[in-house]
Structure formats: C-alpha cells, structure tokens
From TrEMBL:
Family as reported in the entry's similarity comment: Belongs to the hemopexin family.
Protein's recorded name: Hemopexin
Cellular location(s): Secreted
Keywords: Glycoprotein, Heme, Iron, Metal-binding, Repeat, Secreted, Signal, Transport
InterPro entries to which the protein is assigned, alphabetical: Heme_transport/Cell_adhesion, Hemopexin-like_dom, Hemopexin-like_dom_sf, Hemopexin-like_repeat
One of the record's GO cellular component terms: extracellular space
Repeat region (Hemopexin), residues: 91-143, 144-188, 189-235, 289-336
Molecular function per GO: metal ion binding
C-alpha cells in the first residue's frame, strides 16, 4: 500500500511538471539550437525522407530537419533553404517531395511540393506560395495522407504528365490535367521512403540502397538494389578504387543547359556535373553514337558537334532530335568542321568555336549564320571550354585556364597560371 501511494505521488509530480499555467499539458522547452546537435552524415548509410530537384535542377535530399544540396557537401537545416517551414507545424521532417512538371500551367510548373502528414506545401524559388499549406486532398484529390514518397513523371515517360505517390506497396498515378487517380499495388518493389527521377530514369530509395523501376509498369531493372553512396553522393573511401586520378582526366566537351544542369563529355560517355556516375551519350542523345567534339546550349536546345556534323536537340522532359538534323556544321554555323571546343555566355547570342589556335565568333541571331570575328589563341590545342558566372574556363588535358571574359581570352597572348582539375567537380581522385 505504501508502495502504491509512493508511485501515485511520483506520477502527480510528473504531471505537474508537464502542465502549463492553464493546466494543459506541455512539453519542456528545448533549446532553440537543439536541432543543430545531430547533423546527419549521409555517407554513414541513412534512409532519405524525400528527394526532389528545384527549378534549376539542383537536387535536394531530405532527412529529418536537415537536407543536402546536390551530391556533395555537408547537411544543413531545411528551413535555411525552404523558408517558412518552421512557421507552419514546426516541421521536423517531410514525408515526400517532388518537382511539378506541368508546362501547360506556368504558375505550377517547376514548383517543389513538400508533404507532411495531411498537408502539402508548394515552393517556387524556395519561397512558400500564397495560400499554402493546403490539405493534400484539396490539391491532389484521391491521394492519401502520410505518404512515403512521390516523384514527377512527364508525358512521354508516363502516358500524360503525372505524379506517382507511394504509400506502402500502393502506388497512386495522379493525372495532372484530369486530376484522376489510378491505384496500383507494386508488391515486387521495395517500400520506397523516397523516389527520384534522374536523367529520365526512376529510382526507389530504401535504406541506403536504391532500385530502378519503370514508372508505368513498375518493372524493376536488373542488378538492383545498389548502394546509393556509390552513385548519388560523394563519399570518401566508397568507390574510390573505381576512379582514375584527376591527373589523367581530360574532357571532350562541357556545357550547361538553360536550367543550369551541367554536363561533361568524355569519349562515348557523359556525366552530370552534380553526379558521380557516367552514362552513355546515346542514353540521352541516341543519334550521337561516336562521342562529341564540342557541345553548347542555346534557346532551350543543345548543339552536339561531331566532325563536320551538328546535331540539335530540343530540351524538354527528354531530348528530341529536331527534324532535318544532323546537318553540316558549315551550313548551320558557317564554320568548316571539325572544331575542338564551343561555348556561350549567358544572355549573349554569340557562340565561340575553337579550332586549333583560332577562335571564331558566330551570331546565332543572324541569318544566315557566319563568322563575324576570328582571333588567335595562345593554345596549340584545346579540349573543351565553358563560360559561367566566374568567366571563361579553357580545358587542356587535366588542367584549365581562367579568363574574366571572352574578350580577355581573345586578347590574350600568353597562357595564365593553370588550375588542376579537382575531384570536387569531376569523378576522380587526387
């Protein structure tokens, strides 16, 4: 009896501790910095809560109240990138996320949707859209709450523009135009805690592994699952034995498309500059079967040059060769091929073509297109070149040279001090 009285007294003390002044239960106040104390390490082998790219193609990997930007770098707090998260429900995590593909509605296209319990949040350029959060059923009728994963599926890969929602073994195909839902059971697929569309392929993440699947049938690819740390992140000591030294790296071409996605080409392979795994060029540009000499992007198109020919692909959900191509490079740009490199600077209609020690500038707004200027360069041979926010980079072997602008490059008589290709940018080891 004394023991029972003692237990009752202790319970009363605990209840009083957790009650506020109004008599309602409340949790003890935690330090505002408490969520900084457990920054996760994805290379330790964790299970992501969600994965989604933004409107520029930068990938975000979510875990708890942290996220990773891209395929390398440390974790950071989610509310640092996605403002307002703490103002609504004090989000400690997200259940699922995807980037909307809906070009028929410019007010919805490329928005990131984040899901938590029965709520959905819509972000564009990392700002919460007015009117959100909403109930999931208001925005996506027929889609359940407490989701496990979600991924966009553009028309051509799915029958129509759609979103795939995962909950347990059930998959909900949501048609964006009609808002109709078809529910399927994919018992053969692991339970996906996140899903990701990457280079027109679809991946179900489970634990620290991933499995590729077909977005319509759910069919699983061969030789899966695979360790995500070897493909979707850069982890020291994992997979380094498969990488060549940076001193042996040389590029054939490099470019960035209109969304900011950057591609590096070598031989018959290419890699996304945000990733660590090379793919055959024919996977995205199926008609280009023997590598490339130069590549550049302009007006939602990508130009791939090989020998005397140029292939022009329209950039959409996937790349489509424009009718009538390939064409002779001379007819398209006024330069007889082959060329060694090509680049453009953002906001300018001029493409620069490098051939041996010569650089030609061509105005893409002109009709017909022809060389408007020719200059000599202080290089005997260039492998690749690109122009970005920090100027022009000219790649020669495993090194590159930096110039503030094409004008500075065109007036240069000697080469500046070179920089070494780094594993921070390319798949190699120091």
């Amino acid at each position: 009896q004394h023991l029972m009285q003692y237990i009752t007294l202790q319970c009363d003390i605990i209840q009083l501790y957790f009650k506020g002044k109004d008599g309602h239960a409340e949790h003890p106040k935690q330090s505002d910095d408490s969520h900084y104390n457990a920054s996760p390490d994805r290379c330790a082998g964790i299970e992501f809560d969600a994965i989604a790219p933004d409107e520029k193609g930068t990938s975000y990997f979510f875990k708890g109240d942290h996220l990773w930007v891209g395929f390398s770098g440390p974790a950071e707090l989610s509310n640092g990138t996605f403002k307002d998260l703490d103002e609504y429900h004090h989000l400690g995590h997200v259940d699922a996320a995807f980037r909307m593909h809906n070009k028929k509605d410019s007010g919805d296209h490329d928005h990131i949707y984040l899901f938590l319990n029965d709520k959905v949040f819509s972000y564009y350029k990392h700002s919460l859209e007015k009117g959100f959060p909403l109930e999931i059923q208001q925005q996506f009728p027929g889609v359940p709450s407490h989701l496990d994963a979600a991924v966009e599926c553009p028309a051509g890969e799915c029958v129509t523009d759609a979103v795939l929602f995962f909950k347990g073994k059930d998959v909900y195909h949501f048609d964006i135009a009609t808002k109709m839902v078809k529910k399927k059971a994919w018992d053969h697929l692991p339970n996906c805690t996140s899903a990701f569309r990457w280079l027109e392929h679809y991946y179900c993440f489970h634990g620290h592994h991933f499995t590729r699947f077909h977005p319509v049938t759910g069919e699983v690819g061969e030789n899966y699952p695979k360790d995500a740390r070897h493909y979707f992140m850069r982890c020291s000591g994992l997979g380094d034995g498969k990488k060549e030294p940076c001193s042996a790296v040389h590029l054939d071409a490099i470019t960035a498309d209109d969304t900011g996605k950057r591609y590096a080409f070598r031989g018959e392979m290419y890699s996304h500059r945000d990733g660590t795994h090379p793919f055959p060029i024919t996977k995205s540009w199926r008609d280009v079967t023997d590598g490339v000499d130069a590549v550049f992007s302009y007006d939602s198109k990508i130009y791939l040059i090989k020998g005397n020919q140029v292939y022009i692909y329209k950039a959409d959900a996937h790349y489509t060769l424009i009718d009538g191509y390939p064409k002779p490079l001379k007819d398209e740009l006024g330069v007889q091929g082959p060329v060694d490199a090509a680049f453009m600077c953002e906001g300018e209609p001029t493409v620069f073509l490098i051939q041996g020690q010569k650089m030609f500038s061509v105005d893409l707004n002109a009709t017909p297109r022809s060389v408007k200027r020719e200059v000599s360069l202080p290089f005997t041979k260039v492998d690749a070149a690109e122009c970005g926010a920090d100027g022009v980079r000219v790649f020669v072997g495993s090194k590159y040279y930096k110039y503030e602008s094409p004008t500075i490059l065109s007036h240069s008589k000697v080469t500046p001090v070179p920089f070494k290709i780094s594993p921070k940018e390319f798949v190699c080891t120091e």
